[in-house]
């Protein structure tokens, strides 16, 4: 039976940033018993609490209906998994992402010099070999100090990340930040896009820019090193010695004028030894940057880049089971990716306990008050 709407409702903090999102059912036939705002709140509350499919989100809704009605009317109860699947398959993912970016921007506190790592990840479950549909790639920007995904852009192939990165940068407020990108993003247009946003770039140079890489390697044999910094890491069962060397005299670097505000080239030499076996290896990597010759800062920024893999992509795969998800229909996978990133952000922002992300999700499933704390309501 429909619930009376006499009791005032208190909406969650993120609702204002999604209020302008257009309901795709406006152009679909039939009666719509569940407002889009309620579907968003249900889905995010459920995913925070451990749900990872439309079926489990629907089950959460049925079992937690009384709790949900503290915040929204849910006059017609909660929807089936079919309703959830159809709505999120039809929802405009670009509009949903823009709302997400605005919401994150409201809670992020980016400081000058913060590292923003940009990297792509395949949504493995979004592919459909039967219908010849490749898995989607999502390029994300991750603020490493804040531990926040700032936004994302989806492409239908990894090679298209080059065009997606400037689109992503256009969405972000990153003035004063350091943007790190792997070799795929070492492009003149991307360097310019970063500088146009008032940020500095730090780009890995590999074989896709062979002429540039050869020149950078040669430069280290003919130009003096302006600054150097060494560090040691004794964790993860290995000993790693890293040396960061920076050159700022670039007169022998052909074509440097095509890279906007290029100031330095960098060489990172990593010597790793496995403690148990004593076996080791040495790896050398090269970068270009608009940063000045501060070797300690550059070394720290390069190390911070991998937070996008360890803290964002790993969490989405292992904690939220994104790679095993089978959300193939239309925009379903992309929109669930946004929901999962919202849930991850909210979980990371909850600092009253130092428990792991899976533990926080379990507590949220069992404890209504803790779930409300995570959702900031």
TrEMBL record:
Q: H repeat-associated protein N-terminal domain location, by residue?
A: 16-104
**Pfam families registered for this protein in UniProt:** DDE_Tnp_1 (PF01609), DDE_Tnp_1_assoc (PF13808)
Task: Cite a single GO BP annotation.
Answer: DNA transposition
- Molecular functions (GO terms): DNA binding; transposase activity
- List the InterPro entries: ISAs1_transpos, Transposase_11, Transposase_11-like, YbfD_N
All residue ranges annotated as the Transposase IS4-like domain in the record: 115-346
Q: Which PANTHER family match?
A: H REPEAT-ASSOCIATED PREDICTED TRANSPOSASE, PROTEIN YBFL-RELATED
Which protein are we looking at?
A: ISAs1 family transposase
**What is the species of this protein?**
Echinicola strongylocentroti
The taxonomic lineage of its organism, from the top, reads: Bacteria, Pseudomonadati, Bacteroidota, Cytophagia, Cytophagales
């Amino acid at each position: 039976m429909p619930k009376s709407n006499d009791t005032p409702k208190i909406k969650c903090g993120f609702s204002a940033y999604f209020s302008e999102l257009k309901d795709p059912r406006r152009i679909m036939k039939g009666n719509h018993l569940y407002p889009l705002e309620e579907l968003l709140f249900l889905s995010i509350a459920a995913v925070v609490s451990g749900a990872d499919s439309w079926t489990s989100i629907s089950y959460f809704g049925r079992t937690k209906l009384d709790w949900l009605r503290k915040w929204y009317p849910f006059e017609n109860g909660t929807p089936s998994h079919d309703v959830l699947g159809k709505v999120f398959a039809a929802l405009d993912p670009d509009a949903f992402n823009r709302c997400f970016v605005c919401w994150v921007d409201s809670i992020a506190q980016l400081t000058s010099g913060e590292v923003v790592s940009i990297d792509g990840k395949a949504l493995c479950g979004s592919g459909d070999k039967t219908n010849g549909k490749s898995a989607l790639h999502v390029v994300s920007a991750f603020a490493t100090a804040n531990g926040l995904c700032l936004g994302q852009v989806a492409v239908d192939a990894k090679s298209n990340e080059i065009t997606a990165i400037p689109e992503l940068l256009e969405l972000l407020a990153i003035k004063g930040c350091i943007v790190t990108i792997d070799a795929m993003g070492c492009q003149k247009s991307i360097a310019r896009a970063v500088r146009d946003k008032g940020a500095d770039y730090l780009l890995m140079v590999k074989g896709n820019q062979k002429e540039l890489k050869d020149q950078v390697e040669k430069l280290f044999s003919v130009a003096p090193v302006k600054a150097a910094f060494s560090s040691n890491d004794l964790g993860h069962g290995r000993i790693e010695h890293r040396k960061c060397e920076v050159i700022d005299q670039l007169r022998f670097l052909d074509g440097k004028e095509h890279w906007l505000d290029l100031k330095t080239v960098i060489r990172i030499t990593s010597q790793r030894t496995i403690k148990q076996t004593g076996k080791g290896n040495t790896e050398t990597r090269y970068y270009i940057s608009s940063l000045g010759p501060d070797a300690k800062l550059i070394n720290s920024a390069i190390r911070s880049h991998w937070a996008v893999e360890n803290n964002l992509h790993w969490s989405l795969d292992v904690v939220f089971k994104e790679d095993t998800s089978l959300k193939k229909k239309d925009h379903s996978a992309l929109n669930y990716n946004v929901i999962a990133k919202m849930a991850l952000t909210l979980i990371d922002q909850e600092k009253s306990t130092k428990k792991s992300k899976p533990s926080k999700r379990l507590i949220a499933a069992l404890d209504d008050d803790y779930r409300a704390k995570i959702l900031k309501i």
